[in-house]
Amino acid sequence: MTLREPWALSATELGSRFAAGHLTPVDALESILERIDAVNPRINAIVTLNTAGARAAAQASTARWREGRALGPLDGVPITIKDNLEVAGLRCTWGSPLFANHIPPRDELLVARLRAAGAVVVGKTNCSEFAMVGHTDNAVFGLTRNPWNLQRTAGGSSGGAVAAVAAGLAPLALATDGGGSTRRPAAHAGLVGFKPSTGRIARVGGLPPLFLHYEVCGTLARTVADVVLLTRALALPHPRDPASQPFRFKPFDPPADPGRLRMLYIPAFGNAPVDPEISTLLDDAARRFAALGHQVERAAHWDLADDINEHWMTLSQCGLARMLDARHAADDDLSPVARANAAAGRAARGATLLDLFDRMSLLQQRLGDCLSTFDVLLTPATAALPWPASQSYPDTIGGQPVGPRGHAVFTGFVNAAGLPAMALPCGQSRDGLPNGLQLVGRWGDDDSVCALAAQWERTEGAEVRWPPI
Fold first, then answer.
1. Are strands 78-82 and 120-125 parallel, antiparallel or unpaired?
2. Burial class of residue 52 in the structure, from the number of CB atoms within 10 Å of its CB (0-12 exposed, 13-18 middle, 19+ buried)
3. Residues labelled catalytic
4. Mind listing the pLDDT tens digit for each residue in 400-428?
5. What torsion do the CA atoms of 134, 227, 275, 308 make, to the nearest 10 degrees?
6. pTM here?
7. Is 341 within 8 Å of 316 (Cβ atoms)?
């Protein structure tokens, strides 16, 4: 199905039409707002709408385009912001009753940069409580549903962000990724989700960092070109974020041709189960990358991430406990999962946290060895297809029982090592549910990941597919 209504256009297409005078930001926004009215009540993706602010921004953008002084290709393009990122004057709940009335007085850095680029902030998207769970439901706004099947989850913690983009409520979304929170939901919604290298996108201001600098801001869109467009606008250093300093990175400018890359295809991590349909789709993807001229080697067994997967939640649990104690917050308003995570964080000793950092350092060393031989790792983006929305996680995968992180085994190690990674659409299940692959590159080599992703999208003839909603 090909749609040409303004709400269905990509960010790149919108910018081109604005420049040519064939469409105005006001017209684009009104189309988006009509789409939100029609669809959002069914999926609960956008939880705080910024109608008046968005209209004022679209009117100002329209005047700039008419006067020949547009601020750049994002000027007038609608975007949503995840509800754990602060936007001045808009409620920022973090998916928790503790923050239900929190209205920040100022934009955090990346939102300010988006406004400076002329982007139109449409509203805030739903997330799991404290952005710690791979399923989007909370006591403030309730459940977000997958536009591809309303009985299925959109994933998390950026479930609202992916549901909004997949359903045409905005072409772009700004989200966060502390263990796969952009990549797994992107796979569940048939989108492109990018987690940049740690430090590539500076982060200043906002809510307390439960994951420290291991949680980065990620970009979501329906195409690689749009993800690159948004990332380029944000990938600037800031003096208050030492990890972002310019000497650490070359300018973000993905090449048109990735060249011939050495790829390690890792179909499974250790003994963790993977849905058989996902395995079949990824096997086919590996063959297609080889057909593109890349040297693809299949890993017989790969256990580098097993240790960090077992201990990864310790970081955010300690961060949550610290934040709650600093606010003198009672646990009564927390969900049972959040209470359990906070209790685990309080019970952890300092040595436990230092042990985690040692484990992350060892992982980085082992990955450094691996990525001295290979340019890119190819994995599934998630071990499970979208599961019933009534469940917080799938309790079995491929017939094997799994715990709360069983579906998430492929993503957390990327955050622990600070590497760039992108989720890309990779076929659909027999039931029509989206699936995604993941490309992981060397630290700082975000360009190669984006270039390879663009090649995949280009050569696969990846026409944007729309959910039946």
1. parallel
2. exposed
3. 82, 157, 181
4. 999 999 999 999 999 999 999 999 999 99
5. -60
6. 0.97
7. yes
| Residues forming a β-bridge with 400 | 397
In this structure, which amino acid lies at residue 169? L
Residues 57-79: pLDDT tens digits? 999 999 999 999 999 999 999 99
Give SS3 for 66.
helix
Distances (CA, A) of 269 to 265, 306, 379, 417: 11, 7, 9, 16
**Residue 207, SS3 per DSSP:** coil
- What's the number of CA atoms in the CB half-sphere (13 Å) around residue 458? 11
Question: What is d(CA 447, CA 256) in angstroms, rounded to the nearest whole number?
Answer: 10
Tokens of 21: 């005078």
pLDDT at 464: 78
User: Cβ distance 287 to 99 under 8 Å?
Assistant: no
Q: Of 126, 459, 461, nearest to 293 (Cα)?
A: 459
DSSP string for 311-356: HTHHHHHHHHHHHHHHTT--GGGS-HHHHHHHHHHHH--HHHHHHH
Name the residue with tokens 């926004």: 29
Length of the chain: 469
What does the alpha-carbon distance between residue 41 and residue 178 come to, in Å, rounded to a whole number? 28
301-344 residue pLDDT tens: 999 999 999 999 999 999 999 999 999 998 998 999 999 999 99
